[in-house]
Input
Amino acid sequence: MKLDARIPSGPLAEKWDKHRFDLKLVNPANKKKYHIIVVGTGLAGSSASASLAELGYNVKTFCLQDSPRRAHSIAAQGGINAAKNYPNDGDSIWRLFYDTIKGGDYRSREANVYRLAQISNHIIDHCVAQGIPFAREYGGLLANRSFGGAQVSRTFYARGQTGQQLLLGAYSSLSRQIATGRVRMFPRREMVNLVLVKGEAKGIVARNLITGAFELHEADAVILATGGYGNVFYLSTNAASCNVGAAFRAYKKGAMFANPCFSQIHPTCIPHTGEYQSKLTLMSESLRNDGRVWVPKKPGDTRPPEEIPEQERDYFLERRYPSFGNLVPRDVASRATKVECDSGKGVGPTGYAVYLDFRDAIKRDGREVIQRKYGNLFDMYKNITDADPYERPMMIYPATHYTMGGLWVDYNLMSTIPGLFVLGEANFSDHGANRLGASALMQGLADGYFVIPYTIGGYLADVTPSEVGTDHPAFEEAAKEAEARIKKLLSIKGGRTVSSFHRQLGEIMWEYCGMTRNESGLKKAIAMIQELREEFWENVIVPGSDWDYNLSLQKACRVADFLEFAELMARDALTRKESCGGHFREEFQTEEGEALRDDQNYCHVAAWEYQGEDKEPTLYTEPLVFENVQPSQRSYK
Amino acid sequence: MTQGTETIDITLKVWRQKGPEDRGRFETIEVKDVETHMSFLEMLDVVNERLTLEGKEPIEFDSDCREGICGMCGAVVNGIPHGPEKAMTLCQLHMRKFEDGDTIVVEPLRARAFKVVKDLIVDRSPLDKIIQAGGYISVNVGGAPDANAIPISQELAEKAMDAAACIGCGACVAACPNASAMLFVSAKVSHLTLLPQGKPEAARRAIGMVRAMDACGFGNCSNERECEAVCPKEIKITNIARLNREFIKAALFSMEK
Amino acid sequence: MSWLIMTFRTSIGKKLMMAVTGLCFLGFLSIHLAGNLTLYWGKARFNAYAESLHSLGPLVTAAEWILLILGLVHVLTGAILFYQNLRARPVSYRVKKRAGGRTLGSATMPYTGLMILGFVLFHLINFHFTDRTDRTIYQIVHSAFHNPWYVGIYVAAMIVVAVHISHGFWSLFQTLGANHPRYMPFVERVGIGVSLIFGAGFGLIPLYLASVP
Output
């Protein structure tokens, strides 16, 4: 099977315009005959539901929280990029495109990324019209800041709650459509199976999380906007309910999973403290503007930080990357941190933390200035750790934050299953091997507001509306499959809790498929995952029943998916014998210990096709062609 | 610096209710060896792990992001929604705020409009219904003018942001002696009405959202200020005054029905 | 008119009725207090004030009717609000604790309101619907406040009124939409001041009269 990305011909800057013209249109009067299912209500799902309903389609939207407003997009702090060039500092669509391609370490599609950069400006316009209270200058115009090491100020923000405000904007548009009746909202529902009829996506089976009932929903197209799989690491900055379930159901039904090994580790998170810990909290990247990262020079130094004299401290980022210093990109900073901790220089009770020290900044600028800039973050840190960052350096450690991999989609955001579209973090498309700060929000909204409304029309124009009803045997079958799995989980009644399996899986993944990977480790990880999976299906204990609210059961289903998905992830990491972006194979590094790409052999998207239980998946590749930019080595020395 | 692992023993009196029709009751659970660095919800996680292994049903509670922004968590701890700490969601409350031997009473957010789903989980969908009745600006994708076309003073934008910070957790309702949702409604009305983009629909929004709020069975605001005191995002009751103004304007001086 | 009914049926509409009628009562209390203060000038002044008031004739009757209507609106709306608010939380909390917003005044509004209603009826029966054919109003008041029970009841009632106003005053501003961070602290202080003035102004009269032979 050949992967056809359906990238339009013509010059890069005209591809999207040309494509929009070439796409077939659905007659306005006919739109109401079509039904579309949207799973997930983050930025991508909410915006897609709203914009499709605005066009006149009938939309059914599902989310597993109690309200669509809870989706994890809400936790994004930093901002959203756009090529507005309001500050007049030399930004342009081309520059945003170039930075994103380069930041992704040349593992994304030129055409997709360029389109994203083009659309970015419309997103800001629309969000302002929606009433997003972006930060403003005294003169009343929008404020911009530089973010994540970008050399231009292109990030729009609403305090440290940009994701929240953008999501609430999309949620308000969605709510408006719910009121008109064009969107029917199904909260506290989890998609437990995808329904295919003649190879095309025609509906889903959703489980009502309150009653446990399986509900069948037919549609002419299905959109997954179900987020990333960072929780495969157990501890991450993701919300507790983030999972790979819906995407994995689609994978098992034939949608290819692309680049699963591309995950992003954020360098500045509050470290792990104990086994009970349920999540890692992100401390904004902006802290590295003033904080200096260091470890004691002597391994195993247990003195408190203030007793360690200046000459016995190693400011390792400044030492290794003299020109970028503490501001190196996320993947680079994270790896350097790991190297120091692995060599025994880590601090804190676990030895897996480094200091982020504001002593010099406070001395230089005064406590007041620092407080104004970071006061809320310092308070948050103090609340969680009970240590005062004004007095003692913060302790930080990297944590999983975002996953670039996802279901493979073509230029229309359609997966390898006709009629199944995938948006936002759930697809693989725009960030390559590493995502830049403030780009996730941009992509989610671009997909939902500005791409899918066009491209889904191109697909639906050739589909007879409401061809299949839920009385089709495929629905019954899909529901039975899902039910059998749940019954089985409840029947095991073993001796280990779901969380303990998840925690162990996370440890395996973090150790062998985390910030750095190597062949023997990955092979070991695959064996360990298989073993753990086996134990899970024999020894897990899931309390309660399947006919009322049962979080343990929900978790069990999700962990069961992660136990399979983790193997795919490790397999992908094993197969990609190069280092790029967030994927660092120890065997492939420069003399200075930096990522070494292999453009000769791995300048491609790796897409995996499910072959059946306990069978190895098949790898397909989509070559990445660079006609407009020249891949080069990233250097931050 | 290295924080010693201190542990405390506590007694939990937690509300257990099988479903909306069940009468419910308090269950007393002795919890030994609670590490004080745990968050409150992590403590409940640990209790649930223990209950599971003892063959009992874990305590169901809502939570998601666990960083204080999604608004999903929230129970009433010792009589106060989100617990005793100011400006904080329940997921951010840590066990070091409690003493060894403490008895902690945990109840669901209570209001007629919030039906108990199970244990500490309540149905807050009425808040969504209120938003659907006007908590938006009617703009379709595609028609927006340039983002900088309308300047908005920084003061106004900040004020709108103060109100927009609402996370929809429902603590205001739970804390209100009358189970009123006025702080929630007023935050959304304020956010949108302060901005020029929200002005055209101001009258329709104020009337629509207030009626929806009443229809959901929330109580009436009597300016007790408990909502403001528990709001994890410190939304001020000046917003309620603004809602009152907007409502008076809309009801008496517009043609909106 | 249906829009008006619709408006006053909403929660905010009802609160508005409470605020506006409450405001009117504050106005009434001010006039009432000003008149009552003539008691400190002695019998003649007070009786003269009463006479000049009664000479207004139909205006007084109109004012009484208006007060009655305002009173009915305030009491009935208050009763509806009280009932609805009780219903809004059918299962109450095991642990009842204030988070820091509630005050003595705000927490007791319906109860102090009910007490004031009782007091007003008592007061009207004593001084308004009483036989005044062969006694001046001063004599009636003077003799009443030589009964320690009356003094006790009146002083207690005025404390209750003060507590009611301590919340009602700023609350009516809030309900009418007049809450600005710059002025609200002032309004709140004035509210406390007003409640003290009414409480003390009315409350000291029985004590003063009890001391006048």
User: Anything to note?
Assistant: Residues 7-88+103-211 of chain C form one domain.
